[in-house]
Design a protein that fits this description.
about 180 residues, 3 helices, about 20% helix, about 30% strand
């Protein structure tokens, strides 16, 4: 399903693969002057088949291949923001991965920072599963613009996640 959030220009829907990634650019008066861009990619899967990976499963280190995913993210970072081409090697997690809920949909999110010359770049990552397909988003902005960008990123993620509303998390059901 092609999603086109308001206030964003988008690359071709066919690019929304893990190999390439569909790039979105924030446009409008409420976008940061230094620019804000995101990349959305969907991993191949078998819609309607198999076990759905829940966000809380992704937070368990043994359940989610963090090193592989972060390698993919480093490779795609320069597509999101060209400033990250020389900085992707400095990309470091700013904290642990967390579960997040926007509206009635769950996400797994993690923040990163990268040094791009004298500037620092903020990189936000979000993952969720829709119909047994892993969706990944990377958003990047000059770190000084992050306070302005946080609301735009949140709205973007909310528009991109078209999965059915998630049931409340019950840790006892996971045992």
């Amino acid at each position: 399903m092609a999603v086109q959030p308001d206030g964003w220009t988008a690359g071709p829907q066919a690019d929304a693969t893990m190999d390439k990634g569909r790039r979105f650019v924030c446009e409008g008066a409420d976008c940061p002057a230094g620019g804000l861009a995101c990349l959305h990619a969907v991993a191949p899967g078998a819609p309607g088949q198999g076990r759905t990976l829940r966000v809380h499963d992704m937070l368990r280190p043994k359940a989610f291949p963090w090193k592989d995913f972060e390698g993919w993210m480093r490779a795609k970072a320069p597509i999101v923001r060209p400033e990250l081409a020389a900085a992707s090697g400095t990309l470091a997690a700013a904290g642990p991965a967390t579960g997040s809920r926007i509206g009635e949909r769950d996400f797994m999110r993690r923040s990163y920072v990268a040094k791009a010359g004298a500037k620092q770049e903020a990189v936000e990552m979000a993952i969720w599963v829709t119909d047994n397909q892993l969706n990944a988003v990377i958003c990047a902005v000059d770190a000084v613009d992050m306070p302005v960008s946080a609301t735009r990123i949140e709205a973007f993620l909310g528009a991109m996640n078209v999965s059915p509303p998630a049931p409340p998390y019950d840790p006892l059901a996971q045992q």
